[in-house]
Write a structure and sequence with these properties.
41% of the residues lie in helices and 13% in strands. By secondary structure, it is an alpha/beta fold. Helix 8 crosses helix 15.
């Protein structure tokens, strides 16, 4: 999946699409016909693009660029998060409806039952249930739910595919997810891959001697980073799953007002900016889910995928042996 993210520069997304198409030229597509490909010379049956809802479609130009991508590149699927469902202010057309107009499937990433219900009402094609164990941005812990509980309940609400996300990094975890829903979506495991475009210095922190105890879901990093960024993460998505470090330990248990006072009255922001430039893992936010303790090396995404598949099959076969 290509990460359009905040989608502030369509040219960057188109460059990523071009790279993707070049890589896919020699890989035969599955489940498609010549007629399927005839919609557009740019169409790829395997192209998926992910968007951050609150910023990607915050302006008329954002909606215009979104439709341009759908019309000219015909992605197989788009994924939206934070929030997953958005309506145009003028005519009420949703991002789901617009995707379906171009025969693009729509994946909604949700963090609560209420968000899942809204996604189902809008007739999305699949749902990713992001639990509070996940790394990166998501619902604040008091507003969200754990991965397996959320995925299990949502799967009972709908017949569309439901995937679990949060704390899942290996085949045993995937096998567990398959007990309650249709599959899994993994972030931290592929952040720790050779193909990842993340900061390599921070990436190395993922394979140190970590455990699930070393991950915290907190609003503290966003409170600092929102002061430094032109795009501010809004309530209720202004929390991240991240590795604990000196910054989190210093501010854990203190109030948002105490942190704001430090931001306003001390050199905290300047120090944080300097740490960002130096990629100092002791200070800056390192996104990570709670499964990080079972990641011990950086490897290729293909190898990761094959091993996870084998581990899941082995786990399921072992369960069958126990049942017999």
């Amino acid at each position: 999946m290509i990460a359009a993210g905040h989608f502030q520069d369509i040219s960057k997304v188109e460059k990523e699409i071009q790279i993707f198409q070049e890589e896919m030229k020699n890989i035969p597509a599955t489940g498609t016909t010549t007629d399927d490909r005839s919609h557009s010379q740019h169409q790829s049956a395997d192209l998926s693009i992910g968007f951050i809802g609150f910023s990607a479609l915050s302006t008329p130009n954002g909606w215009k660029d979104y439709e341009y991508i759908l019309k000219h590149h015909r992605p197989k699927a788009v994924q939206f998060f934070a929030p997953s469902i958005i309506r145009q202010p003028n005519d009420g057309l949703s991002n789901v409806q617009l995707a379906h107009e171009y025969n693009t499937q729509f994946i909604a990433q949700v963090g609560s039952i209420s968000e899942a219900k809204e996604a189902i009402r809008h007739k999305v094609d699949a749902i990713i249930c992001q639990g509070s164990e996940a790394g990166g941005h998501g619902l604040r812990r008091e507003l969200g739910s754990s991965t397996m509980a959320l995925a299990s309940q949502v799967s009972k609400m709908t017949s569309i595919p439901v995937l679990a996300a949060g704390g899942i990094v290996n085949g045993k975890h995937l096998a567990s997810a398959l007990c309650v829903c249709d599959g899994a979506s993994m972030g931290t495991r592929f952040w720790a891959s050779k193909e990842s475009t993340g900061n390599p210095k921070l990436q190395q922190e993922l394979i140190k001697d970590n455990s699930c105890d070393d991950v915290v879901r907190t609003t503290m990093f966003d409170q600092i980073q929102n002061e430094l960024s032109s795009i501010m993460w809004p309530h209720p998505y202004h929390s991240v799953g991240a590795l604990r470090n000196q910054t989190s330990l210093e501010w854990e248990g203190k109030t948002a007002q105490e942190l704001q006072n430090a931001i306003d009255k001390t050199e905290l922001l300047d120090e944080y900016k300097s740490a960002q430039k130096a990629s100092d893992p002791r200070v800056v936010c390192i996104l990570s889910g709670e499964g990080v303790g079972e990641i011990d090396h950086i490897e290729g995404a293909y190898d990761v995928t094959l091993r996870i598949e084998k581990e899941a099959i082995d786990s399921i076969n072992r369960l069958q042996t126990l049942c017999n």
